[in-house]
UniProtKB/TrEMBL annotation:
An individual GO BP term: proteolysis
Protein name from the UniProt record: Uncharacterized protein
Alphabetized GO MF terms: acyltransferase activity, transferring groups other than amino-acyl groups; serine-type carboxypeptidase activity
Cleavable signal peptide: 1-19
Similarity comment: Belongs to the peptidase S10 family.
Length: 437
């Protein structure tokens, strides 16, 4: 009986550790010397029988992690890995901006990291994104509602294994498609706190950049194009008249020849424009979906010597598919073969397209929110964000004014901190400190 009890204890302890695992990473291939910040990676098991294993990168605040806020960051897509937010937007390291020459990519520190004032968990969601994986075929299928429920379960289990952060102010953040799940997850946590779920999460609010929010936001691309001088005033007026302000093809009748013809003229005008930032050169697909790593890198070496910002997206393929990097990050062998930054090959179903009611409810409950938009993004134009914020009918406590840092603030794109890191880290710091933006 004595030996039986010992064996059972060992098995139970191992199962608990496997469900929520986290290990420190002190060195990363490509970065010179030990990491100057605390990085932990691991998996959290969620869903039925914990058949979904969600992979995360956790970076402690570089200031005062015992008291600084904690963020859960979701990258958009859906289907884009959390490493996008870490390496390209708000994390403390990034790839050195060099044209790929076949050598191993170099990582360098960046001064404009949100980890200067907050701890951040970057998690790969939905299932099938990045290094998150399912143990069964059934578990590989999910919806946007399941994504939100799994994120909530993830946080509850993560806090159970990291109780030292349970009292820290907690925020949920993301951009692009994350505009759909983030307010829903915030609502789930709020409801769970009110219902007495343990552990109690010290939820304070959420942060969203260029967020997908409601179905008609794509209509604002026409207005944006006109404001940027990409289409003429005459075409804009004709589009508005013939299409009656509705430019989504599925809502335009077959017989509306005038509207369809004007939309063709519009497409001709924006052909070759980079929609994520209209002032940048169009360097081809920024998503690089399901493209074999070596083929993609070889093609990059044959293009012109001019450097595109999106070249950095290609470097991460070479880096994260390297065996030494995977070993350093504690990736479980045999779970993910070819890592893909953004994939459309997901067993994922979108059922929600309008989350304005969640924003309204959370605002009425007193939760803080920071909503920001890049002014040169044509994927989700800032005009659409302004429109749904106005729909909430909040009282205006501070009048409209231009926002500046060091004399100017223009040029933000779709993933805004990627384009203007200094400006957006200043904005985030001021917001966290309840200072005027």
């Amino acid at each position: 009986m004595y030996w039986l009890l010992i064996i059972i204890f060992i098995i139970c302890s191992h199962a608990s550790t496997y469900a929520t695992s986290g290990r420190r990473v002190e060195y990363l291939p490509g970065f010179q010397g030990p990491l100057p910040f605390y990085l932990e990676t691991g998996y959290v098991g969620v869903d039925t029988n914990e058949d979904v294993k969600l992979f995360y990168y956790f970076i402690q605040s570089e200031s005062n992690p015992e008291h600084d806020p904690l963020l859960l960051w979701l990258t958009g897509g859906p289907g884009c890995s959390a490493i996008s937010g870490l390496l390209y937007e708000i994390g403390p390291i990034k790839f050195e901006a060099l044209h790929y020459d076949g050598s191993f990519p170099t990582l360098i520190s960046t001064p404009n990291s949100w980890t200067k004032m907050a701890s951040i968990i970057f998690v790969d969601l939905p299932i099938g994104t990045g290094f998150s994986y399912a143990r069964t075929t059934r578990a590989s299928f999910s919806t946007d509602i399941q994504l939100c429920e799994q994120a909530y379960e993830f946080m509850r289990k993560w806090f159970e294994s990291h109780p030292e952060f349970i009292s820290n102010p907690f925020y949920i953040a993301g951009d692009s498609y994350s505009g759909i799940p983030v307010p829903i997850i915030t609502q789930l946590i709020s409801d769970g706190n009110e219902a007495g779920n343990e552990p109690y999460i010290n939820l304070k609010g959420y942060v969203l950049g260029n967020p997908s929010t409601f179905p008609k936001e794509s209509n604002y691309k026409i207005r944006f194009a006109n404001g940027m001088g990409l289409i003429s005033d005459e075409l804009y007026k004709s589009l508005f008249h013939t299409c009656r302000g509705e430019y989504r093809s599925e809502h335009i009748s077959v017989g509306n020849i005038g509207c369809r013809r004007n939309l063709e003229l519009y497409q001709e005008c924006i052909d070759g424009i980079e929609p994520s930032h209209v002032l940048e050169p169009h360097c081809g697909s920024i998503w690089l979906i399901n493209l074999p790593t070596q083929k993609m890198l070889n093609e990059q070496r044959t293009v012109s010597s001019s450097y595109c910002r999106t070249d950095g997206y290609k470097l991460v393929y070479y880096w994260l598919n390297d065996a030494s990097v995977r070993e350093a990050l504690h990736i479980r062998k045999g779970t993910i073969t070819e890592w893909i930054r953004c994939t459309s090959d997901l067993n994922f179903t979108e059922t929600l397209s309008d989350v304005r009611s969640y924003h309204l409810n959370l605002g009425n409950k007193g939760y803080r929110s920071l909503i920001y938009s890049g002014d040169h993004d044509m994927l989700i134009p800032h005009q659409s964000t302004q429109a749904w914020v106005k729909d909430l009918n909040y009282s205006v406590i501070d009048q409209w004014r231009s926002w500046k840092l060091n004399g100017t603030q223009r040029g933000g794109g779709h993933t805004t901190p990627e384009y203007k890191p200094e400006e957006y880290v200043a904005m985030f710091k001021r917001w966290l400190s309840n200072q005027p933006l």
